[in-house]
Q: What sequence folds into this?
C-alpha cells in the first residue's frame, strides 16, 4: 500500500484538485506590502476651520486675531501693515503674542496662486498659530 494515494488512483491520472497554496502565498505577500506602505500614505496636512452659523457668539472678536492678507499684486500685510516675505514669520509671531486664541486669518484674492496661500498658511503655523482660517478678499475685480 502506498502512502498518500487512494487505492483507486493510478500514476497516470492527472491531478484534478486546485492547489490554493500559491494563491494564499501571493495574498499574504500583498497584505504585508499594504501594511508596510500604509503609514506612508498618511500625509500631514493643514487643518482649516470651517465656519458655521452662530460660531462667533462668545468667541474672541476678529480684531484680536492676526490677519494676513495677500493682494493681487502679491503684497503681504499682517494686521494691515506691509511685510516683506523674508520677515513674514517673525511679523506673524509678534502679532500672535497679542492674540488671545492664537488664530491667524489668511485672506487672498481669486487670482493668487494656491502655492502662495499655502505658503502663508505654513508660515502662520511656523510662527506658532494654533488655529488657521481662510477668507476671500472682498476687493473689487480688476478690469483689464
A:
Amino acid at each position: 500500500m502506498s502512502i498518500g494515494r487512494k487505492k483507486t488512483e493510478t500514476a497516470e491520472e492527472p491531478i484534478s484538485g486546485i492547489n490554493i497554496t500559491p494563491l494564499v502565498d501571493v495574498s499574504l505577500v500583498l497584505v504585508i506590502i499594504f501594511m508596510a506602505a500604509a503609514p506612508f500614505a498618511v500625509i500631514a496636512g493643514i487643518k482649516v476651520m470651517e465656519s458655521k452659523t452662530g460660531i462667533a457668539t462668545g468667541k474672541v472678536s476678529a480684531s484680536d486675531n492676526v490677519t494676513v492678507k495677500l493682494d493681487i499684486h502679491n503684497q503681504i500685510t499682517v494686521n494691515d501693515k506691509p511685510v516683506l516675505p523674508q520677515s513674514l514669520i517673525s511679523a506673524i509671531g509678534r502679532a500672535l503674542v497679542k492674540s488671545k486664541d492664537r488664530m491667524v486669518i489668511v485672506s487672498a484674492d481669486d487670482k493668487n496662486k494656491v502655492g502662495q496661500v499655502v505658503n502663508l498658511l505654513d508660515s502662520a503655523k511656523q510662527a506658532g498659530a494654533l488655529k488657521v482660517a481662510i477668507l476671500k478678499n472682498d476687493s473689487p475685480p480688476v478690469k483689464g
Notes: The chain is about 30% helix and 15% strand. The chain has a mean pLDDT of 78.
